[in-house]
């Protein structure tokens, strides 16, 4: 066994007998502890995602079928479909939504809503880039190059937006289905989507976290002319 320093673990790398996300990223302090059942589910999701990304890098997105992913992950195709209803979900979904929700709940009372979302989103983006740099870049590339992935991304981010809007509504004393909060949160997530696409279209040369900050600044005051 090599004595070289180990590479940083990804938030998706389970630790035996421990919360798979504990201590592995800047948001981990906000992650509720996982039970044995949830850790097993996380391990399966991780195996499926890893297999999918490896196959996509080797043979391309279209040639990577659910059946091939299942074989590589040593699970059945029905298991893949149970965890990920669409192939695009394997590329797009991760374990951060619940973490972001809990982090948002813990933001200071009375904080400007945009600043609360800015903190949660930029920390999640930074964690992705630190712990999953190759997957983050491959995901962004697929968002631009594969229409089905981009379309599904819109649906996925809408779900994240709805979850965060409920948390934000509770923090601001509004109803869980408050229209203004839903519109505001959807606008923030839509802006994030455009920042990700812009980053990918420019060959990922820019600092993505800085781009997200620029995006949210534009959302507050409009473009500087």
Automatic annotation (TrEMBL):
UniProt entry tagged with the keyword Transcription regulation: yes
Keyword field contains Transcription: yes
Molecular function GO labels: DNA-binding transcription factor activity; transcription cis-regulatory region binding
InterPro entries: Homeodomain-like_sf, HTH-type_TetR-like_transc_reg, HTH_TetR, MftR_C
Keyword annotations from UniProtKB, A to Z: DNA-binding, Transcription, Transcription regulation
Region: Disordered, residue numbers: 1-41
Residue ranges of the annotated DNA-binding region, renumbered to this chain: 65-84
Residues in HTH tetR-type domain copies: 42-102
Record field: compositional bias (Low complexity): 1-27
Name assigned to this protein: TetR family transcriptional regulator
Native organism taxonomy: Bacteria, Bacillati, Actinomycetota, Actinomycetes, Kitasatosporales
